[in-house]
Write a structure and sequence with these properties.
By secondary structure, this protein is α+β, with helices and mostly antiparallel strands. It is built from two helices and four strands; from the N terminus they run ααββββ.
């Protein structure tokens, strides 16, 4: 009767190799994931800003003036964006009224290559290469 006493399982060196491989993959994948999140949040805030511009134009037709605040337009910045951008609205006075919607990146979004996004009453968008 032959009774084998062979043990099964992983050696410490095998486990360390797997941990090292997982660490290398994570070091490569995480920055790509962060960049993807930044781009998606930028697209989301750009959509919000275009909605703001549309509402401002409608407000101008209805009341002959632009709204000075987001609340006056009944716009609430979604919670998914409040941790990434400060969205503001500035209204200019004078014979030719105007407005500028501005999205200033905060927290993890400050590393976005586009930086501060603006959209005005003429449809001019800055930075132009990010829209």
């Amino acid at each position: 009767m032959s009774h084998s006493s062979r043990q099964t399982g992983f050696t410490l060196i095998e486990v360390m190799i797997v941990v090292a491989i997982v660490g290398i993959l994570a070091a490569i994948a995480y920055p790509s994931y962060e960049e993807y999140v930044r781009r998606s949040k930028r697209a989301e805030v750009q959509s919000l800003m275009q909605d703001l511009a549309l509402r401002q134009q409608q407000r101008l037709l209805d009341t002959r003036a632009f709204a000075a605040t987001l609340a006056a337009l009944n716009v609430v910045v979604p919670p998914s964006l409040t941790t990434r951008y400060n969205v503001t609205l500035t209204v200019g006075a004078g014979a030719m009224p105007g407005f500028v919607a501005t999205a200033t990146p905060i927290n993890g979004q400050v590393n976005d290559t586009c930086g501060v996004l603006t959209l005005n009453q003429t449809g001019a968008k800055t930075p132009a290469n990010c829209w």
